[in-house]
Structures are given as C-alpha cells and as structure tokens.
Amino acid sequence: MEKVIKPVRVKKMIDFHSHVLPEIDDGAGSVEESVQMLLSLKEQGITTVVATPHYKGQCSVDEFLNRRRQSYDCLCAFAEEIGAVLPKVVLGAEVALETYALIGDSIKDLCIEGMDCILIEMPFLLWNGYLFDALDDISQKYGLQVIIAHIDRYFSLFGDKRRNNDIFSMVDKNYALQLNTSALSSWQGKRLLRKLVSLGGRVVFGSDCHNMEDRKPVYGKYKKVISRYLSALDKGRVFENI
Predict the structure, then answer these.
(1) What is the C-alpha to C-alpha distance for residues 180 and 42, in angstroms, rounded to an integer?
(2) What are the DSSP calls for 111-158, one per residue?
(3) For residue 110, what are the β-bridge partners?
(4) Positive or negative CA dihedral for 70, 76, 80, 82?
C-alpha cells in the first residue's frame, strides 16, 4: 500500500521554468503580455518566478546575457510605469545541452542568478553516452547543480523502458528534475512524480508558460498536489535560498 503523504503548508512557491521575459524567445511577445503572465502567476500563489529564456547557441553567451538584461529592464520599467506589483523575478536560461560543446566555460554564466544551478534542456533524439558525459562534465568540472528541464516530456514521449531507466538514473547522479505543472493533470505525470519521489529524486516544478493563450501560466490548480509531495521532496527545501 502506498504511503499517504500529508500536505504541508507552503510559504514559498517557485516557478522554476518560465518564458515570461518579453521579446527574447518564443515566450512573451510584449511587455504587456509579460506583465499579464507574471500577475497571473502571482494570483496563483507564486512568490518567485525564474525567467528561463531559451539559449540554443543562436548568439554568443555575452550577447544573450545583454539581450536578457535589456528585456528584463524593459519589463521592470513598464511594470513601474503602470504600478504593477510583480512576484520576484530571477534570471536564468533554458540551455540546450548541445550548445555545451560550443560554449565551454561560458556555461557558468547561464546559471540561475545567484545560484550554482543550471536548467538544461535535453534533445528529443536518442540519448547517448556523449550527452551523459556532457552532463557529468557540467556537474563535476564546474560544480553546478544540473536541473533537467520538463522531464515529464521525455517520459511521456518516449515511453520505452530504456528511456525511463535513463531518466531514473539521473536521480542517482543527484541531478534535479523539473516537472511541468501541466503534467500533473494526467495519471502518467502523477505516476512519474510518485516514482521520482520513491527514488529520492530532487524534483522542482515549473509552469513552462510562454504566453497568455495556448501556453499560459497554469500552476495554482496543482498547488495541492505539489504541496502534498513537498514533504517528501526534501521537505520543500530544494534550493530554498532562491
């Protein structure tokens, strides 16, 4: 019989994966939409939003960081102009693993602001030893906490035993696994969460929101599910210093 985990009181709710910065990737298309997304997350109980625009090697890391700062500054200026009180926004990036071979040491500059944590997007092709070597290198050479983005996407898309074992092996390497909140609407997503918890996995949650239409912020409706498992997920102290 599965052990019943009682809900815990959540004082701080963090969205670890979002595309709320305006006009930098395929996320918010304007500062107006960006503010709408952030206010929506705030209304759903989110206190901190990690802004993680895509980095896919489309430009140098320095250029990306400059564009990200400009986007953030525009957002802050507009929010102040209209008197919008937003949740705390922390800058980060969703880094395609394939870019690591190109940027090398610059990978450190793409960490979540003020932390030694980096959100990595795995490719949708077959995973191989080279990719796992790259993850190990990022983790061990640079001492970074690797967070694998939207792990549920790979679990549901590649339902074969080998792929799922690859996912579960990441728990042994102490990589953090980011679960999209939308996955909690399905039995498969909840099953994955239960499995990761049973293995002692470090799980964080993110809305992966991109806009206010087909990929709008959806977090609050799953707050009870998240709260229920936080006591098993390091008692909610995963990256508590953010």
Answers:
(1) 17
(2) SPTTSSEEEEEPPSS---HHHHHHHHHHHHHS--EEEETTHHHHHHH-
(3) none
(4) positive
Region of 234 on the Ramachandran plot (φ > 0 left; ψ -120 to 50 alpha; else beta): left
Read off the pLDDT of residues 207-218 as tens digits, 9 standing for 90 and up: 999 999 999 999
Show Cβ contacts of residue 22 under 8 Å, excluding neighbours closer than 6 positions. 28, 29, 30, 31, 33, 34, 71, 74, 75
Indicate the Cα dihedral angle 215, 220, 221, 225, nearest 10°.
120
* Residue 182 half-sphere exposure toward CB, CA atoms < 13 A: 15
**Residue carrying structure tokens 């564009």:** 67
95-127 tens-digit pLDDT: 999 999 999 999 999 999 999 999 999 998 778
- Of 233, 207, 228, which Cα lies nearest the Cα of 218? 207
Q: Give the amino acid at 127.
A: W
Q: Cα separation of 92 and 208, whole Å?
A: 13
pLDDT tier for residue 6 given thresholds of 50, 70 and 90: very low
Work out whether the CA dihedral 185, 50, 229, 162 comes out positive or negative.
positive
Q: Are 105 and 60 in contact (CB under 8 A)?
A: no
What six digits make up the tokens of 6? Answer: 């009682």
Residue whose entry in the numeric block shows the structure tokens 């969460």: 193
pTM of the model: 0.91
Kind of pairing between the strands at 145-148 and 176-180: parallel
The answer for residues whose C-beta is within 8 angstroms of residue 65's C-beta and 6 or more apart is 109
